[in-house]
Specification:
The complex is a heterodimer of chains A (395) and B (190).
Chain A lengths: L1 H15 L45 E7 L8 E3 L5 E4 L6 E6 L4 E7 L7 E5 L2 E5 L4 E5 L10 E2 L1 H4 L13 E2 L5 E5 L14 E5 L7 E5 L6 E4 L6 E5 L11 E7 L4 E2 L5 E2 L3 E2 L17 E5 L3 E6 L13 E5 L12 E7 L6 E7 L3 E3 L4 E2 L3 E6 L5 E5 L4 E7 L3
Parallel strand pairs in A: 13-17
Antiparallel strand pairs in A: 1-29, 2-3, 3-4, 4-5, 6-7, 7-8, 8-9, 10-11, 11-12, 12-13, 14-15, 15-16, 16-20, 18-19, 21-22, 22-23, 23-24, 25-26, 27-28, 28-29
Chain B lengths: L7 H14 L3 H12 L18 H13 L5 H7 L4 H12 L12 H13 L2 H5 L17 H12 L9 H5 L5 H12 L3
The chains are: A mainly beta (395), B mainly alpha (190).
Chain lengths: 395, 190
């Protein structure tokens, strides 16, 4: 009996892998020898002296400084009431706490050895950490650094697939925790529990699926006035240098379908899962963010430090492409939605990280953004494990 | 040197002490080379060569070993307490070393079989056409044969942790005999 069970389990595990690597699915035979592969991250600390921050370009009047270093793989940032910043990582399995000691920042590892704990959120003084297979809550961590976590994993009913199931998480204006479940592949007809955004009560109860057809969102936020949720979504790979482009979407109501796997970007039909009416009933994006751009963190800027024209516009971090022979992205874009929120213009804002698109020469990869109380903007660089601060001074 | 890698516990204890004492880069490297061989060309069965590996691959693996994400007891002792800056120096050093010529005579049948398999599985699209590796993807050419087999089996059985599922998927459905042929072929490439 035991042996039968074991054999069944083994078979199930093998079925999962009866395909090329998830990131290679949908790769056409003509591209079989393509050398494109995900770009290597760094697991080691990069000191400030090795960060060429002088190469960053910003519009006139803006300035950038290195704000914190020494958090390899640091991605999304969540800020607590006392100003501590928590940062998740993927492969390195750590969550960092960054403390501003006035003039200099220090960091420590809150937890390690987790499976891609990229999701971090602060809510009512508690830090929520979400890994692919674990949900932890650290109550009052800002004042009690040694607090033991409450394990909420069982309440969230996390599905087993790992690919594209590392998380970005955030609490909405409704006090609910929003969690994406990405497609476990590059391109496939995903099982029912994937390719969607869900929301939960803070304790993991009351789960609702609020959007479907979402391939892999790694960033979302709410419009300061309409309170609607805006999210980025990564386009599929192996359909060539042109795209399909990443998306910037708006959820005007719950239950919308955003197209994956049949319909991409602004109505591009899929090359592998062909359906003539593949875009029927699909909510198309407000804007496309560029081919394979890896559009990540998004914020609406509500501060008063930047010029007025930036108020209520969006910033979108584009970590940069790998599945493209000429690289694209590696910047922070400023996105200006139309009044009705149906259209938007996209313009590079913070550039200089990509030095040669043809040879993939780059030094940094902007991943997430955070508006500080003084109106400056923090930008995390996942490649160098650093945070930069963008500020504005009238000249 | 080779014998010192065999008495495991005695060796581990010695390593702990040596690790605590090692301060300078040359001292660190001597410690590495006790098992990984002069210039990072290993003559120790089961211990991989480091010479000519891409620096990012070495850095990232050393961090995974230090953090215990990749569980290799011998290495855990050796890298315990290593600073990131030291890891980068060690990685840069071995990336710059020249891989030694492959040892032993290649078996023509296995070489042919391995070459065909490597082509069919598109190993070269990530590891480069001459298998010298790049970025996070290791050099396979002239790596120790039994180590290549061990590593591939680790991916196939999901016992090699700390990476992602890419290699497990790439090797899905590859038979034991094919893994042996691949290992033999890659180990005998210059």
């Amino acid at each position: 009996m035991k042996r039968t069970l074991l054999a069944a389990a083994l078979l199930a595990a093998m079925t999962v892998y009866a395909q090329p690597p998830a990131w290679q699915q949908g790769k056409p035979p003509a591209m079989a020898d393509s050398k494109l592969a995900p770009l290597a991250g760094r697991n080691t600390e990069t000191p400030a002296s090795e960060i060429p921050i002088g190469k960053v370009k910003l519009p006139k009047g803006f300035a950038v400084e290195i704000w914190a270093t020494g958090m390899p793989g640091g991605r999304a940032m969540a800020r607590g009431d006392s100003g501590k910043i928590y940062m998740g990582t993927r492969g390195l399995g750590r969550v960092y706490e960054v403390t501003d000691e006035g003039g200099r920042r220090t960091s420590r590892v809150v937890v390690d050895k987790l499976t891609q704990p990229s999701g971090v959120a602060m809510h009512d003084g508690s830090l929520y950490v979400m890994a692919i297979d674990k949900v932890l809550r650290y109550d009052g961590i800002e004042n009690n650094p040694n607090v033991q976590p409450v394990d909420l994993t069982d309440r969230f009913n996390l599905p087993p697939q790992q690919h594209h199931n590392w998380k970005y998480i955030a609490f909405g204006p409704d006090g609910k925790l929003y969690v994406p479940f990405g497609a476990p592949c590059n391109i496939c007809e995903p099982p029912a529990e994937y390719a969607q955004i869900r929301r939960y009560n803070a304790d993991g109860s009351g789960m609702e699926v609020i959007a479907r057809g979402v391939r892999n969102t790694q960033g979302f936020t709410w419009h300061p006035r309409t309170k609607q949720l805006w999210f980025t979504d990564h386009g599929r790979d192996w359909m060539g240098d042109k795209g399909p482009e990443d998306e910037l979407n708006r959820i005007s109501k719950a239950g919308l379908n955003f197209g994956y796997p049949y319909c991409h970007a602004k109505g591009v039909l899929d090359a592998d899962f062909k359906r003539k009416d593949g875009c029927k009933g699909v909510t198309l994006p407000v804007a496309t963010m560029g081919p394979h751009a890896a559009a990540m963190g998004v914020i609406f800027y509500t501060g008063s430090m930047f010029p007025k024209e930036y108020r209520n516009t969006m910033f979108v971090a584009r970590k940069g492409s790998w599945n493209r022979t000429v690289k694209f992205g590696f910047d922070v874009a400023n996105v200006r939605p139309s009044k009705d929120g149906r259209k938007a213009t996209v313009k590079p804002f913070m550039t200089g990280f990509l030095e040669d698109p043809k040879t993939a020469k780059f030094w940094g990869r902007p991943a997430y953004l955070l508006q500080m109380p003084d109106g400056s903007m923090l930008v995390s660089d996942e490649q160098l494990g650093a945070i930069y601060r963008v500020s504005y001074a009238k000249k | 040197m080779r014998s010192s890698c065999k008495g495991r516990w005695a060796w581990l204890t010695a390593l702990f002490v040596a690790n605590a004492l090692a301060q300078s880069l040359p001292e660190r490297l001597r410690l590495c080379e006790a098992c990984h061989g002069p210039g990072g060309n290993s003559a120790t069965p089961g211990t991989p060569s480091l010479a000519g590996q891409p620096p990012i691959f070495l850095e990232n693996q050393l961090v995974l070993l230090r953090e215990g994400m990749r569980e290799v007891p011998q290495m855990a002792a050796a890298v315990q307490g290593l600073k990131d800056a030291e890891i980068r120096l060690i990685a840069r050093h071995y990336a710059g070393q020249k891989p030694a010529a492959p040892q032993g005579k290649p078996d023509p049948t296995l070489m042919k079989q391995g070459a065909a398999l490597a082509r069919k599985l598109h190993c070269g699209s990530c590891h480069e056409q001459d298998y010298r590796g790049r970025e996070q993807m290791p050099r396979l050419a002239a790596q120790r044969e039994e180590y290549l087999e061990y590593a591939m089996n680790g991916y196939r059985t999901y016992t090699r942790k700390g990476g992602d599922t890419m290699m497990a998927a790439a090797l899905y459905g590859v038979s034991d005999a094919d893994v042996k042929a691949l290992a033999h072929y890659l180990a005998h490439l210059r």
